[in-house]
Design brief:
about 280 residues; mainly beta; 8-stranded antiparallel beta barrel; about 10% helix
């Protein structure tokens, strides 16, 4: 055997040995590639915050630029439409103040009353609206920002401002222990004799409820609410917004003598408000 045959036999032996080693290292079975149509697995749906409730109810305390220290109270019930939108109805009751109201104290009796005040003014506001979630909070923490728009009728209530007047003291020129007080609607032209000296005190708040007058109107508002909370079924937060309200006639609150009431009493009431609220979801 010559040198060429030896080299060929050696190469053949090395090739056979390499093939056996590669075959030993290969997996025993090979999964055949599917030939039918591909079927994609459905993605898993993770539970989300908006899927955990369908109804939201909140109760609030209102502060506004047309009211007193506390403007009023409200309740709102919302229904979830989809992941971003809710529809709601609400009812709000507030009081209206005239910025020119002046408190007067009787130095002889210690009683106090509002000079030239003719009526208490209250408003009931039923409304319907929509709410959009602008920025959603995390499931159990954070702040959620909502945008709200609503409108509805306004039911203005003018309840006479009633004072306790001492006609006996007026006749006698001084107060006496046996004087009889008369509760009647405050009439500046009638009761301001001697600068209101014989007005003993204001009467209880609802003394004139039987003579309440209704003034219809309407309102529209836009707001942002900032919801804080650590639990999905609890709601707490603050709502800030702007409200425009108008009535079919002026809301007569002050009637000073020798002054045109139209210059002091308004028919339209734009206001900025803040509502602090608590509530729950289910």
């Amino acid at each position: 055997m010559n040198k060429t045959h030896v080299i060929a036999a050696a190469c053949l032996a090395l090739g056979t040995a390499w093939a056996r080693q590669a075959h030993a290292q290969a997996p025993a079975t090979t999964t055949p590639r599917p030939t039918g149509p591909a079927i994609e697995a459905a993605p898993q749906t993770m539970p989300s915050d908006e899927q955990s409730y369908t109804k939201e109810t909140i109760y609030g305390i209102n502060f506004n630029t047309q009211g007193g220290l506390i403007g009023g109270v409200s309740v709102r019930v919302a229904r979830v439409l989809d992941e971003r939108w809710l529809r709601f109805w609400s009812l709000e009751g507030v009081s209206l103040k005239n910025p020119k109201e002046e408190n007067y104290t009787n130095g002889e009796t210690g009683g106090s009353f509002k000079r030239f005040k003719a009526n208490y003014a209250f408003v009931l506001r039923p409304s319907v609206g929509i709410q959009r979630i602008l920025f959603r909070k995390a499931a159990d923490a954070g702040v959620q920002v909502n945008g709200l728009l609503s409108a509805g009728p306004s039911l203005g209530l003018l309840m006479p401002y009633v004072i306790s007047y001492d006609y006996d003291a007026k006749r006698n020129g001084s107060y006496g222990v046996n004087d009889v007080l008369t509760d009647e609607p405050y009439d500046p032209a009638k009761h301001e004799a001697d600068n209101g000296r014989w007005i003993y005190d204001r009467a209880p708040l609802f003394s004139g409820i039987g003579q309440t007058k209704i003034v219809p109107g309407a309102h529209i508002r836009g707001a942002l609410s900032f919801e804080y909370g650590r639990y999905r079924d609890a709601v707490a937060g603050a709502e800030v917004g702007f409200l425009l309200e108008g009535f079919t006639q002026r809301m007569t609150i002050l009637t000073p003598p020798l002054v045109d009431p139209n210059t002091l009493n308004s028919q339209f009431f734009p206001s900025v408000y803040l509502t602090l609220y608590l509530g729950h979801r289910n």
